[in-house]
Structures are given as structure tokens and as C-alpha cells.
């Protein structure tokens, strides 16, 4: 029942469909194998699973395999692949979420984009956006408060 | 922690980072400790988690069905590995037990099958052994029966032989056609005796192996029957050893029209033209 939600999280970090499927698979295997480490007093099950999915996605994104796969694309696939990488075209499935985030203020959106979609840590996001750490933290908080408001 | 400090803590954004898994283990532990002490922090965390979960749910993507199939395959494999390890995660315990049982059931079935196979093998071996023993016994019996059979066959042929000879003797004695000439032992073998049967009608001469008692001839010699016709010996032919192996007890010799006496001498193989008188064994007059 969580698999679409987790796949959604993974797909936003990894746009490559096959790799995202692989990571989803790995995520479930890891959830299965480390279920004993889940402590329900520390938080919701979904939070725990989502963090496993995010960590695996980020690991994959930074792994050699993924970097190699970027280098070894077939020529025929190259155009669309490059497009996808450059986000010239959007994955239609991702369009809805983009709109939702676009309702946020641009500075909040930029932070959430990096942290939630691209799997950046807040430290990396601060470097990328050239902002103090505290500001990044605050903006993440504000973005999530905005989300909370949206859902309530 | 004072109320203001708590508020500042909540507003620092550290709880959001905690929920996003973006804190070091030490920082995360600190957040957990504070959350245990303060209800406000727990509520805030729950709200953040809830928002992110809803956000994720709202933006869920249905993964292709193939992923699920592959996943179960992979989990099946990792489950097998895990059944060996001691710890069983509490959350997945239920599912795992199911796996265990089906696995166990298969093993049990196989174990029963193995036991059945072994039992069958033992029974088969025993049956084979018994059969083999019986077969050996049967072979022994057949061999001994064969021996008996040969022995009996020998006895039967011997009996037939003597029976034929004896019945002929009886017949000849009863018949008026046949004259029985009794020959008595001579100098070299006084104990010997032999009968010659002479048909008065057709003049044929018969001897009966059963009605003779002559010393055994050696390999180089055989007996020759003579008829004395007017003082001259006429050969009636040779005959073999007294214990002849021939089936016929009776032996037909050459016919003689008239004779005054019959005699038997021991001659070299094939017989002689004239009798060797020194080897005269039996003789008798008509």
C-alpha cells in the first residue's frame, strides 16, 4: 500500500524509470531486512520507510553505477535522455506535484526542490544556494508548514 | 527546557530535518531524547511526519506491476537467507512464519518421501536376499536331483538289461526249439561256466551275457566261440567282455548247421583262425 508513495518519492529523485524501479525494489528488500530496527515510538512507519527510500535513491544517484549509466547511453536514446536530464520535458506523472510546489514562494520552493526532490542534505542545499545553514533550515520548515496548511 | 527555548527549538527547523533523515545520528538521538520529555515536540514531529506522508501519498506513482513480481522473487531469496539467521524482525514475523511453514511443509514431505524410499530399499534388499537364498537352494536341489536322476537312469537301464536277459533265459529254457548247451570251466579257469543257446530249427546261435561267468578279459584279448564240427573247430565269432556295456544281454553268433560241442577260448582282439587251445576257458558237448 505504501509502494506508490515510495515510488513517488524515489521517482522524484531518480528520473530514470528503470533505475527508480530498481531502487524501489531495493527499498522494499531493505525495509524487509531491517524491519527489526524500526521503533514505532520514534516516528511513523512511513517516515522510516520514506527515509530508507530517499537514502537508497541518493546513494544510487551518487553511485558509480549510475554515473556510468549516464555515460553509456545509446545514441538513439541520447536526445530524449538529455532532455530528461535537463528537464526540458517533464515526466507527466511529476507535473502535479510541481504545480503544488510552485504555489510556494520561490525561495521556499528552491529549498524544497533540492532537499525533497534532489535528495540534497540541508548542508549541500546551503552550499548550492549560497545561503547560511540556519536560513536553509528555516526555509525547509516554512515550506513544510506551507504543506501542512495545504493538507489540513 | 523552558517554554521559550522549546519554541525556538521547534522553530529552528531541526525537527523537519529529523523527519527528512537529514541529521547525524547524534543529533537525531538528541531530538529523540527531547521528544520523549516534551509533548509539544512530539506533536510537532507528528504534524511534520503527517504532512510529508500526505504529500508523498498525494504524489504517489503507481510502480509497474513487474516491479512487484521481481520484488517478491528477491524477497523470496532474501527470506531464505534470513531463515538461517537467528533474529527474526518482529514486524515481519507473521509473514515469515508463513514462509517457514510452507518451507517446513515441503521439507517434511521430502523427509517422509525419503523415509519411504529408505524403507522400500530395505524391504527390497531383504526380499532380494531371501529370493537369492531360495534360488541358491533351488539350484542345489536341482543339482542333487539331477545326480539322483542320472543314478536312477543308470539303475533303470541296468535293470532293463538284466530283465531282458533274464526273460530271454526263461523263454529259451521253456522253448523246445532252443537247446541249451552248458559249458564247464577248463584247466585255466575251473570256476568259469557259460551257456550257449542253439536253435534246432534255424540253427542260430545265441549267447546271453547274464548266463556266463568268465574271467575278465584284458584290453588286448577277447573271447571267441567255437563249434566242434566233426572234431574241427569252426569259429562262431568273438564276443566282448563279460560285463558288456551293450544294452542287449543277448548276442547273436554265427549259425552252425551241426556241432558236437561248443567251446570258448581267449584270443587276441579280432579273433583267430584257429583256437589257442592253451586258452580254452569253457567247453561243453551238445
Automatic annotation (TrEMBL), chain A:
Tagged with keyword Transmembrane: no
InterPro entries, A to Z: RNA_pol_sigma-70-like, RNA_pol_sigma-70_dom, RNA_pol_sigma70_r2, RNA_pol_sigma70_r4_t2, RNA_pol_sigma_r2, RNA_pol_sigma_r3/r4-like, WH-like_DNA-bd_sf
Gene Ontology biological process: DNA-templated transcription initiation
Residue ranges annotated for the RNA polymerase sigma-70 region domain, each copy included: 2-65
Residues in RNA polymerase sigma factor 70 region 4 type domain copies: 97-143
Keywords: Sigma factor, Transcription, Transcription regulation
Signal peptide from the UniProt entry: none
GO molecular function term, any single one: DNA binding
Keyword match rRNA-binding: no
NCBIfam families on file: sigma70-ECF (TIGR02937)
Family: Belongs to the sigma-70 factor family. ECF subfamily.
Identification of the protein by name: RNA polymerase sigma-70 factor (ECF subfamily)
Species, as recorded: Pedobacter psychrotolerans
From TrEMBL, chain B:
Segments passing through the bilayer: 112-132
GO molecular-function terms, A-Z: sigma factor antagonist activity
Gene Ontology BP annotations: regulation of translation
Endpoints of the signal sequence: none
Anti-sigma K factor RskA C-terminal domain boundaries: 124-276
Key words, A-Z: Coiled coil, Membrane, Transmembrane, Transmembrane helix
Stated name of the protein: Anti-sigma-K factor rskA
GO cellular component: plasma membrane
Coiled coil: 31-58
Amino acid at each position: 500500500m505504501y509502494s506508490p508513495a515510495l515510488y513517488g518519492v524515489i521517482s522524484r529523485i531518480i528520473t530514470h524509470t528503470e533505475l527508480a524501479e530498481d531502487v524501489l525494489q531495493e527499498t522494499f528488500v531493505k525495509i524487509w531486512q531491517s524491519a527489526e530496527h524500526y521503533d514505532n515510538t520514534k516516528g511513523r512507519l512511513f517516515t522510516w520507510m520514506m527515509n530508507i527510500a530517499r537514502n537508497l535513491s541518493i546513494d544510487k544517484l551518487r553511485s558509480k553505477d549510475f554515473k556510468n549509466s549516464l555515460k553509456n547511453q545509446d545514441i538513439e536514446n541520447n536526445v530524449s535522455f538529455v532532455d530528461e536530464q535537463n528537464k526540458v520535458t517533464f515526466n507527466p506523472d511529476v507535473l502535479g506535484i510541481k504545480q503544488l510546489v510552485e504555489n510556494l514562494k520561490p525561495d521556499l520552493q528552491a529549498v524544497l526542490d533540492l532537499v525533497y526532490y534532489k535528495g540534497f542534505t540541508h548542508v549541500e542545499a546551503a552550499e548550492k544556494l549560497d545561503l547560511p545553514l540556519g536560513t536553509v533550515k528555516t526555509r525547509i520548515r516554512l515550506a513544510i508548514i506551507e504543506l501542512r496548511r495545504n493538507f489540513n | 527546557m523552558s517554554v521559550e527555548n522549546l519554541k525556538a527549538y521547534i522553530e529552528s527547523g531541526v525537527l523537519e530535518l529529523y523527519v527528512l533523515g537529514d541529521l547525524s545520528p547524534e543529533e537525531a538521538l538528541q531530538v529523540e531524547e527531547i521528544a520523549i520529555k516534551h509533548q509539544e515536540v512530539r506533536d510537532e514531529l507528528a504534524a511534520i511526519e503527517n504532512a510529508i506522508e500526505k504529500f508523498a501519498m498525494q504524489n504517489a506513482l503507481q510502480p509497474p506491476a513487474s516491479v512487484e513480481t521481481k520484488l517478491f522473487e528477491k524477497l523470496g531469496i532474501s527470506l531464505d537467507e534470513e531463515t538461517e539467521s537467528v533474529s527474526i524482525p518482529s514486524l515481519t514475523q507473521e509473514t515469515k512464519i508463513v514462509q517457514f511453514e510452507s518451507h517446513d511443509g515441503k521439507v517434511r514431505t521430502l523427509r517422509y518421501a525419503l523415509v519411504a524410499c529408505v524403507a522400500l530399499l530395505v524391504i527390497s534388499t531383504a526380499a532380494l536376499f531371501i529370493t537369492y537364498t531360495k534360488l541358491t537352494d533351488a539350484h542345489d536341489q536341482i543339482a542333487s536331483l539331477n545326480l539322483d536322476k542320472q543314478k536312477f537312469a543308470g539303475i533303470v537301464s541296468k535293470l532293463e538289461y538284466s530283465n531282458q536277459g533274464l526273460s530271454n533265459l526263461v523263454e529259451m529254457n521253456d522253448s523246445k526249439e532252443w537247446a541249451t548247451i552248458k559249458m564247464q570251466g577248463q584247466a585255466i579257469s575251473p570256476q568259469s561256466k557259460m551257456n550257449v543257446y542253439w536253435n534246432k530249427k534255424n540253427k542260430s546261435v545265441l549267447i546271453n551275457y547274464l548266463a556266463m561267468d568268465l574271467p575278465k578279459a584284458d584290453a588286448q584279448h577277447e573271447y571267441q566261440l567255437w563249434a566242434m564240427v566233426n572234431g574241427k573247430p569252426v569259429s562262431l565269432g568273438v564276443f566282448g567282455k563279460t560285463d558288456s556295456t551293450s544294452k542287449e544281454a543277448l548276442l547273436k553268433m554265427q549259425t552252425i548247421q551241426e556241432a558236437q560241442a561248443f567251446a570258448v577260448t581267449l584270443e587276441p582282439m579280432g579273433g583267430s583262425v584257429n583256437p589257442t587251445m592253451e586258452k580254452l576257458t569253457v567247453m561243453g558237448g551238445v
